[in-house]
Specification:
22% helix; flat; 23% strand; 5 strands; alpha+beta; single chain
């Protein structure tokens, strides 16, 4: 049938305590923000590294030639940015890794920021909401 489309109309189930985890996260955030600090971590879009075309403006006086396709096999690696935001001080920090996107890397990113003098994270104890 030409022009037919699917519609998301069928519920897959109903969980009794669906909002329980979000209420708990909100409670923890409020208590840490009032007493010490609240930090939010987020992983952004992975970007391929290499001689690949990216839309935008280049600040150069010569032509930069790139591959005609952005296949992962042509990339030299992958950049994975992790952002950590200190909600109390309104400061944000980004670490960029080239390893795998794992919980270990996320924790290492948080430790790098916490150990950096320039970070100046507020409080000694802090909550990281990695959602």
């Amino acid at each position: 049938m030409p022009g037919a489309q699917g519609a998301k109309a069928r519920a897959t189930g109903n969980v009794a305590d669906r909002d329980k985890q979000f209420v708990r996260i909100a409670e923890l955030k409020a208590s840490y923000l009032a007493a010490s600090a609240s930090h939010h971590m987020d992983t952004k879009k992975k970007e391929l590294i290499g001689n690949l075309y990216r839309p935008g403006t280049l600040l150069t006086q010569s032509v930069v030639t790139t591959f005609d396709h952005d296949w992962p096999s042509l990339a030299d690696g992958v950049a994975i940015p992790h952002g950590l935001y200190d909600a109390k001080r309104n400061h944000g920090f980004v670490t960029i890794g080239t390893g795998h996107d794992t919980s270990e890397f996320a924790c290492d990113s948080a430790l790098v920021v916490a150990d950096t003098r320039a970070a100046r994270l507020s409080g000694r104890d802090f909550l990281i909401a990695a959602l």
